Amino acid sequence: MDRAELADFLRRRRAALVPRDVGLPEGVRRRTPGLRRDEVASLAGMSTDYYTRLEQSRGPHPSTQIVASMARALRLTDDERDHLYLLSGHAPPPRIGGDSHVGPGLLHLLDKLDDIPACVVSDLGETLAQNRMHVLMVGDQSTVTGFDRFHTWRWFTDPETRTRFNSEDWARMSRKHVSDLRALSAKRGGDVVVAELVGALQSASDEFVELWSEHHVATWTSALKRFIHPEVGEIALLCETLVTQKEDQHLLVYFPQPGTEARERLDLLAVIGTQVLGDGEHLTN
Predict the structure, then answer these.
(1) To which H or E segment does residue 84 belong?
(2) 278 occurs within a structural domain
(3) Rounded Cα–Cα distance for residues 281 and 60 (Å)
(4) Handedness of CA 98, 104, 109, 114 (dihedral sign)
């Protein structure tokens, strides 16, 4: 980890941003260019003191989760994100499935949704960004690598993934994953990444092979999902999907139905989920 280079890079990227880049009001004229440290810290979900120490070359070794949060807060490109990982002493996550850079519009919406779970995924289901509530509900997905970044892969190969959902919904969700992938495979017309993912799933999961052979095609934009949290219990949420103009990135927003216990359980999740991540790192936004 190169603390001096990391500090310089963070300061320069912060200075390159203006409030409107991250959806903040312009306010009064600023004495220095760029965002304030407390604004970046808030966007990244950490304490201002922790971020300040990083910019002053005296911070601790940031975790990959913190690095991912800073990259999102500073609106870094893929190349800049990789550089930030290297300066922080971590190997950059591999780029799979195309451009993983999330546009400022989607990130602005994601930052505003602070009391309900939301995330940005690629059209292949690769997790690109999560807000704090989504991390608390399903775990941090920013540090996984390879095919594990794709939810469809985790669904068919990692039993732990399914424990996050009501078992009565597993069969329906399996069909949803396969139908969506079928539709995308036809839309992309021989895309290498899609072909590699399908091939890997066929080798790893008999269930996937059976469902794939049925040739169901569908794209799902909304559904009721019943999440299971180990401490809060079941949280039944409606999922709405906002699609970018190029249809390559989706903002998934999960919200409670009126008159249900889901709102209270989300509030409880927010309370019990506040935790120290290690040596001053916090999820606070």
Answers:
(1) helix 78-87
(2) no
(3) 9
(4) positive
Kind and range of the H or E element at 238? Answer: strand 233-243
Q: How confident is the model at residue 282 (pLDDT cuts 50, 70, 90)?
A: very low
In a shared domain, residues 77 and 113? no
Residue 32 CA: distances (Å) to CA of 51, 53, 125, 223? 18, 19, 40, 46
Q: How far apart are CA 129 and CA 262, in angstroms?
A: 23
Number of structural domains the chain divides into: 2
100 has pLDDT over 70 = no
- Do 71 and 142 fall into the same domain? no
Range of the domain at 83: 3-92
How many angstroms separate the most distant Cα atoms in the chain? Answer: 63
Give per-residue pLDDT as tens, 181-199: 998 888 877 778 888 899 9
Burial class (CB in 10 A: 0-12, 13-18, 19+), 42: buried
Q: How confident is the model at residue 220 (pLDDT cuts 50, 70, 90)?
A: low
Put simply, whether the predicted model's pTM sits higher than 0.70 gets the answer no
Residue at a domain's end among 60, 92, 124? 92
